[in-house]
Design goal:
Bound molecules: zinc ion
Structural class: alpha/beta
Shape: globular
Number of helices: 7
Helix content: 25-40%
Strand order of the largest sheet: 3-2-1-4-5-6-7-8
Number of strands: 8
Strand content: 15-25%
Order of helices and strands: EHEHEHEHEEHHEEH
Largest sheet: 8 strands, mixed
Length: about 230
């Protein structure tokens, strides 16, 4: 089965590796990997696409190469570069849905803000310690700033604190499921969304209903009114 549309995976590390593998298994038609980093020895234990001979090579290119070899029916492409304020909107507009597989809180806010600006849905994901979470940021639903006002509030970073590899792997797979589900037409309407949360200590997952905040500085109603006036 193939699911039409292009999925942009921003980050080809701990989240992006399992997410891209699951996307290919689930029948995504086009997967693009975006990352500026090169493979380092410390990545090898939990970033499944890379081996010792890949050290020093760009992750986005190696990841796309491995996907192409195993899933020739999937169209794969790579963007070697940093996704930042200057290019995030354009990269999102060129895809049907994006997966935030970055590992820093700042990057996660940047991706969420770009999704709100462009209206292109984004699957947010993050892990901290034993806990991982993912949800779909889409027009009309809650964005990352509805839950966390700024990167300083923390709780979103994968790379800046200790994490459990299996939790990150599970979050990446869940992100792929949410992206493919959205492309296949599964979606909620209205101002609430289901946040999927995994507790790696006892391997239990639960869904929590989260709501859009009217006073959100990114997607809130007051911000929308300001945009209409401009
Ligand atoms: Zn918001």
């Amino acid at each position: 089965m193939s699911v039409g549309g292009k999925v942009l995976v921003v980050g080809a590390g701990g989240l992006g590796c399992p997410a891209s593998l699951a996307l290919a298994h689930l029948g995504a038609a086009h997967i693009e990997l975006a990352d500026s980093d090169v493979v380092e020895a410390s990545n090898l234990p939990r970033q499944l696409w890379y081996g010792p001979s890949d050290i020093g090579r760009h992750k986005a290119e190696v990841c796309a190469e491995r996907l192409r070899a195993i899933f020739p029916e999937v169209f794969t492409s790579s963007f070697v570069g940093r996704v930042d304020e200057s290019n995030a909107d354009q990269l999102l507009r060129e895809c049907d849905i994006a997966i935030d597989a970055t590992d820093g809180a700042e990057a996660k806010f940047l991706m969420s803000d770009a999704s709100v600006r462009t209206g292109v849905p984004l699957v947010h994901g993050g892990a901290l310690g034993f806990v991982g979470q993912a949800w779909l940021v889409r027009p009309g639903g809650p964005c990352v700033r509805c839950l966390f006002e700024s990167p300083q509030e923390g709780g979103l970073s994968c790379g800046q604190s200790g994490i459990l590899g299996s939790v990150v792997g599970s979050v990446g797979i869940q992100q792929a499921l949410l992206a493919v589900g959205h492309l296949a037409g599964e979606r909620r309407e209205g101002p609430s969304e289901l946040l999927w949360q995994l507790d790696g200590r006892n391997l239990t997952a639960r869904q929590v209903e989260i709501h859009r905040r009217a006073d959100c500085s990114s997607c809130g109603a007051s911000r929308e009114r300001a945009r209409c006036v401009q």
